[in-house]
Amino acid sequence: MYTRNETRRIMVRSVPIGGGSPITVQSMTSTDTRDVAKTVSQIQALTKAGCEMVRLAIPNHKAAEALFEIRKEVDVPLIADIHFDHRLALIALEAGIDKLRINPGNIGSPTRVREIAQAAMAKGIPIRVGVNSGSLKKEILDRFGSPSPEALVESAVEEVDLLDDLGFHDICVSIKSSSVMNTVHAYTLFAEKRNTPLHIGITEAGTLRYGTIKSACGIGGILSYGIGDTIRVSLTADPVEEVYTGISILKAMGIRRIGPEIVSCPSCGRTEIDIVQLAEEVERRAAKLTAPVIIAVMGCVVNGPGEARESDYGIAGGNGFGLLFRKGEVVRKVAEENLIDELFGLIEKDQKEGK
Predict the structure, then answer these.
(1) Is pTM, for the whole model, over 0.70?
(2) Is residue 4, in this structure, part of any structural domain at all?
(3) Residues 269, 241 within the same domain
């Protein structure tokens, strides 16, 4: 049985993080934040794909000022990513941002960190402390000799304690590395020390194909320990792909049922139907569904009927025909060329009837 690690709850606009709340999916815009129209368009695309929080890079004052207009155009929770200049965080807070992502170690003096914390506290805005292997302080690197999991955790604890000492407790933490094993180890170490909500991911994971594999290994590994309250998949690709991948990881782990899930066999010499084309077409048509249904697409009589019976709906192919299943029961025998139409006809009929 999957058991979540107990963490405190914080609120990002109307979305809860931690405290047993559903694990949320985040992404980050790749547009120039100063270009309001393009940024809003990408935020809307991310939201449509299922993104529940969107982070924006705020590298300068013009980007910070653009948040005032962006905020008017979208309702999804927005996170401002701030480095070095504490004044940008203050502008973002005034613009109506819902969460700040900072690294207190690179913001500057404790006075500046205090100023951000006080302003965020006054508006009820949480802060994510982001620790990355590529941005550790020199003294921590000197002490540990490398950006090891222990070094990452030391940095995270130090920065969380700094905010705690200022009386600011609405904190979320991320501890990311491009190394899967180091990241998994770091999160497990930190979870033993603090009950702070955790944002998880593998930083700089890579291109769409390899980055997806790497992220699935790392995020899935961390989630398997019951650790993680919100996730972001970092890909060198359209950020919409990050959202699809993040949702797919949560579905594959059985943690959240978000939209349809396709279960299909890999094909083998026993298969007497074009299972590859069949599965791809089912996946394409299922993309229009919003209900969290599991659809099995099987190619033979060995595992097919059994797997199909474990799903909400299923088809198991044979030689020129197939069986159509609903909730473990055979509905009818169908000609191969009609399998997909019959499957989706049944799903649509059930949805209309509220089954």
Answers:
(1) yes
(2) no
(3) no
